[in-house]
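Second opinion, please. Please look over this fold, written as C-alpha cells:

===
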Amino acid sequence: MKTNNNPNSIRKLVASAAMAGALLVAATSGRAGNATTNVFNFSGSLGAWWLNGWGGQSGGTAFDASQDHTGDSGGSLHLVDDFSGGDQWVNIGWIGGQQWGGNPYDLTGWTNIALYVKWDTSVSTIEITNFNNSGGDNQIQLYGSTANNGGWFTIGQFYLPPTASNGWVKVNVPIDPTIPGITASYCLGLKKYTGSGKTGVSAFWVDDITLEGNPAAAIPNPTMQGLSKTTSGLNLFALSGPYNRENLKSVNDQAWVGQSGPVSYSFTIAKGVNGSGSAQYQNHIFLAPSPGTETGPDWTEPNAILVDLESTTAGGASWTFRYKTNQPNANSMMYDGTVVPGIIGNSTPVGKWTLTFNSANNITMTTPSGSSTNFTIPADAAALFTAPVQAYFGCQAGNTAGIGQGSVLSEIKITGTANPLDDMFTGGTAVNPNNWITNAVDNGAVFVTPSDAAYWLSWSLPDNGFAPQSKAALNGGSWNDLTVTLLQGNGQRLALLHNSDMPAAKEGYFRLIKRQFTHLQVLFPGETNAPNTLTGKIGTPTPVTAGSEVDVTVHAVDATYHIVNVSDTVSLTTTDTSASVPSNAAMANGTITFTTLYLNTPGSWTVTATDQNNPLIPPATSSAITVQ
C-alpha cells in the first residue's frame, strides 16, 4: 500500500492480514452483546438519583410510591416541571447505584435504552402536546457523563408520546456506539430545556429505565478506514456537547467602542464541516466585556455578542449576529427573532468571514463570496461593550450529529482595536500565549497542527481496548506500537500520525490489536511504564520522608505491559501497618493515580493493588520503597 495516494487499500491489506494473524481483529466477528439490564426500577426509593440538578424547574420532583409501571407498588420517579421556576430541569441517576461514585458503564454492549413514562393529568396544567412543543430543546434529552460530576454528553432525545396521558408508554432511545463518551458513562440523566416565556406546570412519571441488549448479536470490531492528509492551521474539534464551547480567548482588550475607525474581526476556514449529514456544527465569535474564566460567555455574562456560523444541510453555512444585554446566565434574547439583526449565508463554510464595526453600533457581515449585509444595534446596547472586551474564536457541536466534528482555521485577524493581531497558526507550534488563552471544555479540542504532522489515520467505532500498530513491510519485520494523539470525530476514531510514526518513506501498513487485560501494575514516583520489557517498567522508587504523601499509579496492563482501557475499581493495601490508605477508586482509560497514601513508618515497604471487579485479575505488588 502506498500511504501517499491509496488509503483505501489499507482496509484491504488489513483485512487480508487478519486471516494470517490473530492479533489483527478487523476481520473477526466481534464481541457478544450484553443481556438486558434494568438499571433503575425505583423499587421503594429513588436510589442513586440526584434531583434538582440545576435549572430551577424541578423543585417538585421526587419519588412517588403510588405509581409503578409494573403494578408491584415499587414506585417511580415523578418529574414536575414548573416553567415559572427557570428554563430547564435536570435529574441524574448513577447507573451503578452509587451516587457520586461507582464505575462507568460501557454502553456499547447494549442496543437501546428503554424507559416507561406516564403523563400526570392531575398536576399538569398544560397539555402534553404543549410540553412537547415548548421551545428550547423541544424534546427531552437523555444524556450520560464521563465523570461523576461532569463530562455530559447527549445519548439521544425523545418526545413524550401523547398516549402517555392515558397510561404507561414505553420509550426507546437507540444507543449510538460512535458517540464520544458512550464507552464510559457513570450516569443517565434527563434534561428538558424549555426556553423562555412559557407558563404552567407539567408533570409525568418515569419507571423501569432499562439497558436493552441482545447477547446473540455480535458487536463488530473496529475496521481501518483510511489515511487523510492533515490541514495546517488551528484545529477546532467539538469533542463533546452539544453545547460545550471550545475556544481561544484573546489575552488583550479587543473592544471596538471608542476606536477612531472601523474595527474588524475575521476568521478564515481552511477546512469546514459539511452539514449535509444533519450536523449543526458551529464556528463562532464571542465578544464580552470583562468576562470571567467560563467557556460560555454567551450564556454566563450579562452582555455578550455571539456571531455563529452554522453548517447547513445543503452543505453551506448560515452566519447570524446575536446579542444580549443585562441577561446573565441566560441567552433567550439572543434567539428572539425580534432582536436578531443580521443573518447571511454562503454556499460553503470555507473562506474568510469578516465582522466589521463601522461605528459603535453600525455593523457589516461579509462572507467568503464577497456578499454582505449591514445593520445597526441600539446605541445604548453598544455602549455596554466598553473596554476591556475579550474576543473568543471557537466552535461547538450544536446537536448530536455535530459532536466530534472539526474545522481548521488558517487565520484569525483583528484590526482597528488597541491591540490588533493577525495569527496564521503556522510553524506547527502551540498557540501564541501573547495573543491567546485556550478556553475550552475538553482537553485536546483546540490545537495547532504540528509541523511534523503527516496524516490522520481513522477507524470505525466502537474500539474500546484496541490500539494501533504499524510496520514497514507486510511480509517482514515486526509490528510497532503507535503512541499517537487520539480524537473521536464524525463517528470514527482519529489518530494523528507524525512523520516519525510513518513506518517507511513510501510504504506502510497499519492494524488494530485488542489488548487483553491480564494483570495490574503498581508504580511509585521514579518508575515509568515500559511495555515489551521484562519487568514492564524502568527506574526505581524515589525515597520518601515518613508521614509525607506518596503518589501511587496503578495501570491495567496486558501480558506485555501495554496499558489497557478498562474502568475497574482498585483498592490498595500496604505492608506499613501504620499507613493511611486512600479509598477505593475507579481507573479511567486503564490507569489511576492515588494521591492520598501516607507511609508513616521508616523502613522498606510495598503497596498491593487489587481489582475489585474482576476476580480473575491477580493482586499486584509494587517494588519496595524506602521511607526515611
